[in-house]
Amino acid sequence: MAGISSPTRLTGFSGALDTEGLIKKLMQTERLPLVNIQKKKQQALWKREDYQNVNKAMLSFRNTMNNLRFEKNFEKITATSTNTSVLSISTGGANIGTSNVEVKQLAESATIISNKLSYKPGESMGLAGTIDLPALAGGNNVSIQVTTDSTIDSVVKDINMNSATTGVRASFDASSGHLFLTSTTTGQNAKVQVSGSLAASLFSKTDATGKDAKYLVNGTEITASSNNVMINGAQVLLTGVGTASIGTKVDKSGVIDDIKKFVAEYNALVELFNTAATTKLSRDYTPLTDEEKEALSESQIEKWEKKAREGILYNDSILKDTLSTMRQSLNTPLNVPKDQISMLSQIGITVNSDWRENGKLEIDEAKLEEAITSNFEQVKQLFVMTSSAAEVPGKSNEGIADRLYNALNKQMEAIKKKIGVGSVDTIDDSVMGKQLKELNAQEARWKSKLLDIENRYYKQFTAMETALQKMNAQQSSLASLIGG
């Protein structure tokens, strides 16, 4: 019997009975309780997996609402430069101030430039000796060995391979014939020093020091070792000597995209939950047994199981409760004065009037843009408000984003208690974990019971075959006596 380990048996020696075939048919009936348990187990695994997918969808929507819970995400303040040839803005923080900047000196690397060299890349230099570079603090000095076979390219490569130790990089400009040794940092603490037997013949100057950037911000002089600096909340790259002003620009357009995303994800969640909770389980499609799968192709199995999985979450209480809670969160007015925005409908977001859409939202974009342009603070408050004021029946002191965020947290926790946090077949203390544990125990008990039943059948049929064999032998003896 498939799935149950059986001892090796010898049957059919009487020649009168198809013992194997008869027992196989008998066991098909005996196995029905086990098959039902295995089908229930597969349905439980599918249900757990579908719950996990529901949780992922809620997590994604919760993250979207989390973005709308905080005031900082509504107004994106960006910094602007009046003269990008003097300074450019890399990034702007939340509290950028207006600043007048005068750049007097840019930060520079330390650089040593060689004498004009006649070497061509790839050709040997015909020199032998060393180029020595001191190490950064805590390291060992580096001596570049030059042989008569060395090329200018190999010397550059050897120097650059030790840049982490020396803080110096090399480059060769073939068009001008100059070798450049440059510090990897800028500022007055950046240094390049070269010594060794070849230093004097290659370089007329053997040491150099970098320069700090010098600039005034609203009249106060500042020095920095880098041209990448922070000025009054904005990350700035100093690009030249001169004057420029840093201003601010408030960008409110991003919040429109965030609200559109909220509506789109809410509608997707409504579609997912409503489909899952209203699709009935088909009694004509149940999980396939191993024997049934053997008779089907991969594509047939896939189509069958897709149909068998539909309706696994039919009429599910968690899904229905989540939909109800979200709708209540959206329909409860904010606890604000009458002349202020308290409902989504006032900013152009309403429930679709077509009952077949199951309460999905739709946006009047023109009305939404108008509300953000003319009543930005009230629109922001509609989503982010938290108030300790006295509760008013039928109104909420929480903004819509907080309401939905908290509702989703509660429902996700309910699913977590039901399915646990592991893989679909994890045995844990969750409701479904305990269910799977019991189904596994029932499956094991029935497998053991069926093995006993099968063994009993074999014993009975063996005894029957033995009796038939004796009877046949007696009939043969009797016939031979009568015939004799």
Q: List unreliable stretches of 5+ residues.
A: none
Number of helices: 13
On the 0 to 100 scale, the average pLDDT is 88
**Distance from first to last alpha carbon:** 48 Å
Strands, total number = 17
Main β-sheet, in a few words? 5 strands, antiparallel
> Which overall shape is indicated by the principal axes computed on the Cα atoms?
flat
Structure class: alpha+beta
Helix content: 40-55%
For the biggest β-sheet, the strand order reads: 1-15-3-11-12
> What portion of the residues fall into strands of 2 or more residues?
15-25%
Element order: H for helix, E for strand: HHEEEEEEHHEEEHEEEEEEHHHHEEHHHH
Q: What is the C-alpha radius of gyration, as a whole number of Å? A: 41 Å
